[in-house]
Structure formats: structure tokens, C-alpha cells
Amino acid sequence: MRPFFFTLVASISYGLLTAAEPLLSPYSLHEKRTSIPAGWSRSRRHEATSILPLRFALKQSNIEDIGSYLYDISHPNSPNYGNHWSAGEVASKFAPGDESVSAVRDWLVGSGIEAERIRVSPTKGWIQLNATVEEAEQLLRTEYHVYSHQTGQDHIACDAYHLPAHVQPHVDFVLPSVHFDAKLSRRSGVEGSAREVGQPGYGITPKTTGRVSTEVTELEQCDEYITPICLRTLYSLEYVPLATEKNSFAVVEYTPQAYLQSDLQLFAQNYSQDLIGKEPYMVSIDGGYAQTEYQGFDYNGESDLDLQYGMTLVTGKQQVTLYQAGDMVEGASFNNFLDAIDGSYCTFEGGDDYSQDSEYPDTEPGGYLGPQACGTVTPAYVISTSYGYDEADLTPFYAERQCAEYAKLGLMGITILYSSGDDGVAGNDDYCLNPNGTQTADGKIFNPSFPGTCPYVTSVGATQVNPNSTVFEPESACEQVIYSGGGFSNYFAMPEYQKEAVDYYLTTYPPQYPADIWNSTGMSRGFPDIAANGANYVVAIDGEFELVYGTSCSSPVSGAIFTMINDARLAVGKSPIGFINPTIYSSEFAGLFNDITTGTNPGCGTAGYNTAPGWDPVTGLGTPNFAKLVEKWLTLP
Ligand SMILES: *[C@@H]1O[C@H](CO)[C@@H](O)[C@H](O)[C@H]1NC(C)=O
Ligand SMILES: *[C@@H]1O[C@H](CO)[C@@H](O)[C@H](O)[C@H]1NC(C)=O
Ligand SMILES: *[C@@H]1O[C@H](CO)[C@@H](O)[C@H](O)[C@H]1NC(C)=O
Ligand SMILES: *[C@@H]1O[C@H](CO)[C@@H](O)[C@H](O)[C@H]1NC(C)=O
Ligand SMILES: *[C@@H]1O[C@H](CO)[C@@H](O)[C@H](O)[C@H]1NC(C)=O
What we know:
Elements: E1 6-7, E2 27-33, E3 40-45, E4 51-58, H1 66-74, H2 87-94, H3 98-110, E5 118-120, E6 126-132, H4 133-140, E7 145-149, E8 154-157, E9 160-164, E10 171-175, E11 185-187, E12 190-191, E13 207-211, H5 228-234, E14 249-254, H6 261-271, E15 281-285, H7 297-313, E16 321-325, H8 334-341, E17 382-385, E18 389-390, H9 396-411, E19 415-419, E20 432-433, E21 439-440, E22 449-450, E23 458-464, E24 476-477, E25 487-493, H10 499-508, E26 524-527, E27 530-533, E28 537-541, E29 544-549, H11 551-571, H12 581-584, E30 593-594, E31 623-624, H13 626-633
Parallel strand pairs: 14-16, 14-17, 15-16, 17-19, 19-23, 23-27
Antiparallel strand pairs: 1-2, 2-9, 3-7, 4-6, 4-10, 5-6, 7-8, 11-12, 13-29, 18-22, 20-21, 23-24, 25-26, 28-29, 30-31
Helix pairs in contact: 1-9, 6-7, 7-11, 11-13
The structure holds 2-acetamido-2-deoxy-beta-D-glucopyranose (5 copies).
Protein name: tripeptidyl-peptidase II
Catalytic activity: Release of an N-terminal tripeptide from a polypeptide
Pfam families: Pro-kuma_activ
């Protein structure tokens, strides 16, 4: 749970320094930084009388067991399959214990801090105290300095800090301290932050080859033009939903990305008559709204695609929710969205990182002045997101905190889908890693995406109908305009559920690349988990039909299919399918996905990985066969 440049040392006594005060136990080093991140330099000692908003992130209870709790309710052979937890059960299972709160509070009071200055967050996730620098330096046996970045930004930090030995087991970390999460530069020389995820050109974005100039209505045209009938045929999705009142499906969009109602209606005229006059149910998060001020493929392509295909495939009977996150000024990150759908996440492990995530109210001109969304939005059963980062854009700590939240949503019975990326084994915009961890166009090391590498989401890659082939022949990995994101994480270990499938791939079809350009340990999370068509989508954008490519297509299409499986289960009184990975990798589900065995995912100057029979790091287990999957899923409790 710790960024790589920190070390946790538990037993260096600092008894001498503390001789002047009444202390319950000797101090020990808690966190220490081994180097200052590139671009930063120490400029001066911080003023003794300045106020520091000290935050003590308390240790979560039971967090190390989250994977096994999730397995217990989502593996088809488990007697507890489908027994999802309530949000309250999740919050209390992982909330720090009362003994952690009192250990920290008693120590602070014993050190001379007035009790009324100490605040405990409602979820007990952290303890907050406005301390002078002098007080903080005393409490933590440290010195605070002001560091300056070459861009002019300042950051308050220390090199190391200490806690009394009896307090240490209750504290994850203290902020501000050695952490430089502000460093997270996305690639050398360019500052990026997680909240830019909705900006045109940032992260995973669909591509277009331009306008469709011919009439498209026939199944015979699916090798050149994908329309809903192609997908229904490819994935055996003929289904009329029955439990629409109980069911829910949402797509997430990050402002300024926005859908146009006129485009939805244009699409409905040609391809989806029952959507005529319908619109998505929009839930605004942190001031999000479907802006119309900026238009063009880069602003409307993603949202138009997601809603036109997502809404069509679940039919006009099923309402689709649009979570529109972030205002026009600050935007939003995935953390801002997660805060909205889970109140316990807002403060989890010390809360969001505002060098990365947006902060509301937003006092910039034109900013959203309402309070930051925190647990105000009910999560839908299936949530599809076609945006993404490179894993290396984020620190391991940031990625792990967010990944644990996906596990919590899984415990609550929610299916989380993310596109796996559009640049094969390379990262967004074809950037690859260098040995020093930076990302550049000439990097050589494979660059996996996030959250696709989080073991608690379902990552969706892309396929294509081969040129001159029909929808009745097998698809290949997508090799038109985009390549399916896939590979192996550098942050997350291989989860139990995929061990057999990934081991089989690595031993039967071992990738022939040197170990220094991919994570060849055989112990890291492989992605994607599944795939769906991602080439040649006919999408109504800005008043005309355009041809669109990307795993951005694959995620909402898969989301619609899983939503229809939920419908069938809800209709007979069963639970939603929740976190699907332990189920879909299990032997009971073998053969229910269409295995993709041709094509690769090039990037970083290589041909990428090969597809192969069984799971592969290009198309995962393959594309869903709705008819087979729904039948099997109905046999589960
Ligand atoms: C610390 O000070 C800020 C700014 O005055 C205030 O908003 C915040 O509530 C204070 N926090 C605590 C724990 O007193
Ligand atoms: C949509 O329908 C109109 C009217 O029938 C037709 O002229 C147009 O070619 C169709 N567009 C596509 C992409 O098929
Ligand atoms: C990291 O390595 C790349 C390529 O070797 C180089 O161009 C870049 O300057 C290095 N950056 C830092 C911060 O060391
Ligand atoms: C598809 O068929 C057309 C017409 O027969 C031909 O010109 C083209 O080369 C074929 N493309 C592929 C990839 O086989
Ligand atoms: C490979 O992944 C594991 C986590 O699964 C990580 O511990 C290890 O550092 C990674 N190797 C490299 C070279 O990044």
C-alpha cells in the first residue's frame, strides 16, 4: 500500500529528543523519503507560526482481507454467492476501530493539544488538527520545508517523521509529510493530473475516420459498418427486458465531454425507433451537465457513442443513467465520481489528493459552488466507463486506494467495467515507459492502463469483424485504427481467479520479449478480462453519422449485455451479478465467451502480445455470448 520511494522502519528509538516531555512510549521512524521527486527542490524552512492542516490517516480494519471477502460472494462455487453487502456493512467492516481513534487522540491530548481542536471524521477514517508548524514539528519529531517545483508550484513536506511506538500501529500515514503526490507527471516534462480525464485528447479517447457516406442497414455490411443489428447478432442478444423497474445501468462521462440529445434522436431515427423521444436520466456530480458550448468529435464523440449504443442495446424500456461528472473549470477525476457514489470513500485513507482530484466548491470564475458530492448518488448495478489513465500516471498509493474502492463496490453487487485502452501494449497516445519510470513516445517498455489493471474491475478490450467476413465468422483482435489495450500490471499482483487462465497462457504461449520490457514475473495482474467489438461503429455525432473506433465502444456494449443478464436474474428474484471476474474465469463458464484466437496488440515498437486459445492479454476470455451466459447465470443462486 505504499509508494515505492518510501520505506517504513519500525524501530529506531528517538528517546533522547523527547526527554523534555511526558511521553507514553519512545518515538519511532514512521515514514521516510529516499529522494526528492524530479523537478522539485527544497527552498526554505517553513515558518514556525504557519498553520498546517495535519491529517492522520487511521489504519483501516480488515482491508488486507478485501479480496477474500469479495471472492466469497462472487465465486460461483461459494455458498455465499450473490450475498452482497449493504453500503453500511462495507463502511463498518473497513472503518478504523475505536481503539485507533482513541490511541491518536489520547496521544495528542497528552502532548498538550486541547481536545476541542481535534476533529474525527464521521467514518473514523482520519483525525484532523490545525497545528502550527512548531507544534507539528514537535508532535512528529520532524522539520517542515517549503519545496518549489520548476513550474513555480510550492509544496510543504518533510524528509521523515516519527510517531510514538504505541500510536504507530493505528496510523497509516500523516499528511502533509513525506508525500509528494503532486509529482505525478504523466510524461516527462508535462504535468498532468487525474482530473484531466475528460479533456479532449487526454487518456483513452475514441477515434474517427470521418463521415459515413452510404446508407447502412444490412447485416452484410458489418465488416465495414457496425450498427446495433451487427452487435445483436454477434453476441446473440435478442432479449426484451422484464425487470426494468428494479434494474439499473449507467455510463459515466467527464465534463467537458457531453452527449447531444439531437444526436441521440438522429441515431434513434435510423437504428433505434424505441428511443425516439427518450433521453438518458442525467445525474449531475460536482456540477456536471451536458454542455453544448463546445462541440465537435473531441467533445461529443465519446458520450454520443456510449449512450447511443448503451441505450439501444438495453432497449427503450430500460432507463439508462448518465453520471455527468465535474464542472467546466475543474472537471473531475475517477475519485470525484467514486466519492459521489460511496460516502465512505470521500475520507477513505485520508481522502482524495487535491493535487490530482478536483475540489468543490470550485471558486474559480464559472466554477460549481455547490458542495463536493459525497455519497449523494446511488450506484447503478452496472457502471461502464470509457475513460482511463496509464498506470504509471499515478502513484501506487493513489492507484491502490482507488482499486480498493472498486472491490468495495463489488461487495455491494456492482459490476464495474472499464475500457482497456486503445494503444495495444503502449499507454495512451502510444507513450511507452523508460527505465526511470517516465513515459515518452520513444520509450520501449510496455505501459499498462489503469483502472484496467486493478484486479477488482472488469477490463474490456476490443475486437473486429474481419474485412470481407460476416458476423457468423469468428472476430479477431481489433487491428483497425486502434489496438486492444492489454498486458500485465506493474502495480497489482495476479488475483486468484485468473491464475489458472493466465498461467496457461504464459506457459503454453510464452511471449518472446526480453524481461525488461514487460512484467514477465508471472505474478502480476493480466488484462483485459473480456472484449467486444471496437471497430467501425456508425455513431451520430454533431448531426451526421461518423465511423468510430475504440475500446470506448466495447465497454458500454458489454455493460448493456450484463445489464440484460441482471434483468433476467432480477425478474426471477435473484441478485444482480455484481463483480463478475471470479465467475467468468471459473470452469463452469468455460466456452460461454467467444474465444478470440487471431490478431495481436502492437505497441512500443513491437507486435505486442498474441491472441491464443483461452485467455490472452489482447482480448481476455473473448466476447460475450448473451444467450449462453444468461442461461448459465440463471442457474446460479
Ligand atoms: C482548520 O482550519 C480551516 C480554515 O480555517 C477550517 O476550515 C477547518 O475546519 C479547520 N480544521 C479543524 C480540524 O479545526
Ligand atoms: C439514415 O436514414 C436516412 C433516411 O432514411 C438515410 O438517408 C441515411 O442514409 C441513413 N444513414 C445511414 C448511415 O444509414
Ligand atoms: C528518463 O529517461 C529518459 C529516456 O532514457 C530521458 O529522456 C529522461 O530525460 C529521463 N528523465 C529523468 C527525469 O531522469
Ligand atoms: C475484400 O473484397 C474486396 C472485393 O472482393 C477485395 O478487393 C479486397 O481486397 C478484399 N479485402 C480483403 C482484406 O480480403
Ligand atoms: C511486476 O508486477 C509486480 C506486481 O504484480 C511488481 O511487484 C513488480 O515490481 C513488477 N515488475 C516490474 C519490473 O515493474
